[in-house]
């Protein structure tokens, strides 16, 4: 049963259960309010590392370490596994430090199918202080074991809304949001894109921004990712490894006046993978939002003439 939960998305969805492994992930889950059903441990010492009050609501099952090694797909299992009710992001209690540093910055994942990439992207989103992460249908299950390992606890630090169709994505976005796309499938060496970046976000020239049009007619102005684009609230779409951005993502961005954010790489090199691109664009978005917030604070502190 444990192996089935870990390996089968259908089973996880049907029974509403997820498998978590290791002290850190299980401790993060418990502190965020995830509901444990069963904890498997090889020694009592493993339980002493967890919050006592939270584990009382779970069935505690001592098993042989060899059994855990059989169930686990880790090279070096820790001897602690937990079956939890699938967490509802609306009911999670995220860490106070995470909430205090949250920004009006959202991430939309478009057909991210590689588990390691999605986990790394979620970790970057939590690190950048994203308010929320939306996963469209076609993305790998965020509760797949490889995603959980790569996420390093991000699942319990930032709300993750999975399995959305594009028609429902706008209902999860705040009013007035601008949606930009990180497009790795374009030539970043286009000479019409202005170069150079200062310590503060610069403004790109509208005349120099080339247009991108998908098969449905959606037009997006393109610019380098380090130029001025992040105004609260803002969302970034990151496309999948194989097919890149979908037409629906481009249409959503165009409908909000969004832009196509290009990450320049040395000519002749393949584009960056989705996890690296997401990290670069999200942390640049964070930099711009914080810079703009400081500018607004400075203006408010100026003395009123007369």
From TrEMBL:
GO molecular function (one): RNA binding
Region Disordered: start-end pairs: 180-219
Keywords, comma-separated and alphabetical: Methyltransferase, rRNA processing, Transferase
SMART domains given in the database record: SpoU_sub_bind (SM00967)
Cellular component, GO annotation: cytoplasm
Classification via PANTHER family: RRNA METHYLTRANSFERASE 3, RRNA METHYLTRANSFERASE 3, MITOCHONDRIAL
Organism lineage string: Eukaryota, Metazoa, Chordata, Craniata, Vertebrata
Family statement drawn from the similarity comment of this UniProt entry: Belongs to the class IV-like SAM-binding methyltransferase superfamily. RNA methyltransferase TrmH family.
Sequence ranges assigned to domain RNA 2-O ribose methyltransferase substrate binding in this UniProt record: 19-90
Protein's recorded name: MRM3 methyltransferase
Superkingdom assignment: Eukaryota
Record Pfam families: MRM3-like_sub_bind, SpoU_methylase
Any one biological process term the GO annotation gives: rRNA processing
Organism (species): Chloropsis cyanopogon
InterPro entries: Alpha/beta_knot_MTases, MRM3-like_sub_bind, Ribosomal_eL30-like_sf, rRNA_Methyltransferase, SpoU_MeTrfase, SpoU_subst-bd, tRNA_m1G_MTases_N
């Amino acid at each position: 049963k444990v192996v089935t939960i870990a390996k089968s998305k259908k089973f996880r969805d049907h029974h509403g259960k997820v498998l978590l492994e290791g002290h850190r992930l299980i401790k993060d889950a418990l502190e965020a309010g995830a509901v444990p059903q069963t904890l498997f441990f090889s020694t009592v010492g493993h339980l002493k590392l967890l919050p006592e009050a939270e584990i009382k609501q779970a069935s505690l099952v001592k098993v042989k370490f060899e059994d855990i090694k059989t169930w686990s797909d880790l090279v070096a299992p820790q001897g602690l596994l937990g079956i939890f009710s699938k967490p509802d992001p609306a009911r999670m209690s995220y860490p106070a430090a995470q909430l205090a540093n949250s920004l009006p910055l959202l991430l939309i994942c478009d057909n991210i199918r590689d588990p390691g990439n999605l986990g790394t992207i979620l970790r970057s989103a939590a690190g950048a202080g994203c308010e929320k992460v939306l996963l469209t249908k076609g993305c790998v299950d965020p509760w797949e074991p490889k995603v959980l390992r790569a996420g390093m606890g991000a699942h319990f630090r930032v709300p993750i809304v999975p399995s959305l169709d594009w028609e429902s994505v706008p209902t999860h976005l705040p009013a007035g949001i601008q949606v930009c796309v990180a497009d790795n499938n374009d030539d970043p060496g286009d000479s019409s894109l202005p170069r150079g970046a200062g310590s503060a976000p610069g403004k790109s020239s509208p005349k120099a921004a080339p247009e991108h049009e998908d098969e449905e007619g959606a037009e997006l102005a393109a610019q380098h990712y380090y130029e001025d684009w992040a105004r609260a609230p803002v969302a970034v779409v990151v496309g999948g490894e194989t097919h890149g951005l979908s037409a629906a993502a481009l249409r959503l961005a165009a409908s909000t006046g969004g832009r196509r954010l290009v990450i320049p790489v040395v000519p002749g090199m393949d584009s960056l993978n989705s996890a690296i691109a997401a990290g670069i664009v999200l942390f640049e978005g964070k930099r711009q939002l914080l810079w703009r917030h400081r500018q607004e604070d400075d203006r408010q502190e100026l003395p009123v003439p007369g």
